[in-house]
């Protein structure tokens, strides 16, 4: 067997074995998040719902990345490796965490759920780590994003050259940095949910909900409920 193919074969076996634990944990967290988030639909615990929305938003992309990670790093077909790497970079680049975890949204969560200062600081650092990893992908994707994923450019030779020149080693390094950041973020989410599930936090969220705010305002102004 060709030495390079033998290396990929061994790497593939190693990755499949090594990723089993992470994949199992990811699927477990995903299923739990979906089930618990559904239970909160229609409730007045706004901060908890926002945290679950962040979690599911994050985990949806993580499952996609996990599904192609082994192929990106070790598939014997170089074209499939290249394509998997490009797709992973695109997912990392395009997922906009600010849509669900902007400064404004996080401030609302912290205040409504009475999240501790220590956990707030950890969450800020984790989100920054994700953002830094995303910025690294911009350098690699700046030219290939539209031309080689959606194949929009009419210049076929340009498409080919851009694909052929993708620096796979640099891309893999960027992806690995992202996974390091996501691992930290993934580890903080359960602690955030735990704090938001305490009785003082739930009472605070309930009193901060819109229906209860309106009821309190009506009581103060004497308006009929």
Task: Report a brief summary of the structure.
It contains ten helices and no strands. With 225 residues, it is mainly α. It is elongated and about 65 Å long.
When the domains are counted, the total is 1
What is the arithmetic mean of pLDDT? 85
Largest sheet, in brief, is: none
Shape: elongated
Q: Percent range for helical residues?
A: over 70%
Using only C-alpha atoms, the radius of gyration works out to 22 Å
Write the H/E string, N to C.
Answer: HHHHHHHHHH
Low-confidence stretches: none
Please identify the structural class as seen in this structure. Answer: mainly alpha
Amount of beta strand: under 5%
Compute the separation of the termini in Å: 79 Å
Number of β-strand runs: 0
Number of helices: 10
Account of the protein in words:
This protein has 225 residues and is mainly alpha-helical. It has one domain (3-206). Helix content is 85%, strand content 0%. It has helices at 3-40, 46-74, 78-94, 98-101, 103-113, 117-149, 156-164, 168-196, 199-208, 210-221. Helix 2 (46-74) runs antiparallel to helix 8 (168-196), helix 3 crosses helix 8 (168-196) and helix 6 crosses helix 7. The longest helix has 38 residues, at 3-40. The radius of gyration is 22 Å and the shape is elongated. The N and C termini lie far apart (79 Å).
Topology:
Layout: H1 3-40, H2 46-74, H3 78-94, H4 98-101, H5 103-113, H6 117-149, H7 156-164, H8 168-196, H9 199-208, H10 210-221
What are the salient characteristics of this protein?
single chain, 225 residues, mainly alpha
């Amino acid at each position: 067997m060709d030495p390079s193919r033998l290396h990929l074969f061994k790497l593939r076996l190693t990755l499949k074995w090594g990723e089993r634990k992470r994949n199992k944990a990811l699927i477990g967290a995903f299923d739990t998040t979906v089930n618990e988030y559904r239970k909160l639909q229609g409730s007045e615990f706004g901060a908890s719902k926002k945290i679950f929305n962040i979690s599911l938003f994050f985990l949806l992309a993580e499952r996609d990345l996990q599904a192609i990670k082994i192929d990106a790093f070790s598939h014997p077909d170089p074209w499939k490796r290249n394509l998997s790497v490009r797709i992973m970079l695109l997912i990392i680049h395009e997922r906009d965490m600010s849509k669900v975890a902007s400064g404004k949204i996080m401030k609302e969560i912290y205040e409504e759920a009475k999240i501790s200062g220590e956990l707030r600081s950890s969450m800020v650092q984790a989100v920054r780590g994700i953002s830094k990893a995303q910025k690294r992908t911009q350098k690699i994707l700046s030219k290939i994003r539209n031309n080689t994923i959606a194949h929009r450019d009419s210049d076929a030779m340009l498409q080919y050259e851009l694909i052929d020149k993708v620096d796979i080693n640099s891309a893999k390094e960027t992806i690995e940095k992202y996974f390091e950041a996501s691992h930290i973020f993934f580890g903080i989410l359960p602690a955030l949910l735990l704090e938001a599930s305490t009785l003082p936090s739930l009472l605070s969220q309930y009193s901060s909900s819109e229906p209860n705010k309106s009821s309190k305002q009506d009581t103060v102004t004497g308006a009929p409920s």
